[in-house]
Write a structure and sequence with these properties.
Length: 100
Amino acid sequence: MIGLATDVARSNGPAKRAYRQVMEMMAGIFAANLGRSPVAEVGGAADNADRQRALAVVALCVGGMVLARAVDDEPTANELRAASRRYASALAGWEQETAG
């Protein structure tokens, strides 16, 4: 998901379809295992909250790594990875491990 995002964006239907299918599987696994959304009642989004939260976690996971790999400053890259991990974990309701 991380390494192919840019190439797939420039490709045609079959590659984009396959990429979407993998992303949908990833989001489906997250949605099935995240539990109740902390924002389920906000804006009447209860019906679609699990999917929306799963998509947001996928976007944070993949997007955070894509950006971290693209910047030329290692401290900024590390900060991007840490922030993405922290907020994806919080959004998903996962316990955050303490970094040593």
